[in-house]
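Exercise 3.2. Students should predict the tertiary structure of the chain below and write it as structure tokens, then compare their answer with the key that follows.

Predict this chain's 3D structure.
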Amino acid sequence: MNDYFEAFDKGPLSDRGVDAVAPEIYRGIYAMPAFVTIPTDDLAASADFWVRGLGFIELFGIPGQLVHLRRWAFQDVLLVAAAPGSTTAEAPAMSVSFSCVMSQLDEVARACESLRPGSATGPRDTAWLTRDVEVITPEHARVIFTAAREYDAQSAEARSLADAGIPVPGTQDRGDNVIHD
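Answer key:
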């Protein structure tokens, strides 16, 4: 029996690399298993940035109080009006990451830069086989858009994951068996 399950096969996206295709924006209603709530001094400006820059849709809103944003299934953000007398000028102690596909990274970075110059950095490759773009939103939240890179079974990253017992297609497991897709 295997103690691992193929986590990349669970959820709206399982393809890796430059040919991966983004799923459609999910407009259904469900009990959200997780979501982010971000206070903002300007709901309209924040919602505009998240929609035009980060590619979310406004699922619904309560004028002057709340905007519910969504991309894919289980990628929900609630923008809420900051409490009277408070300010969001300081960066909140939060960061959130959203899955995407490679073809979306440059588009997100360009759109955010055109709306708020200096708001996006990257893309950059990570040791855990993703390519990421980091965006600082008008509310000073740190948002990471992360796309899975294709496996290179010969890369140091893939070997490191395999050495840790994490199955990586094309590498060998601890028993010297080649792992297949």
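Discussion points: The first helix runs from residue 43 to 52. Strands lie at 36-40, 57-62, 66-70, 76-81, 95-100, 120-125, 130-136, 142-148.
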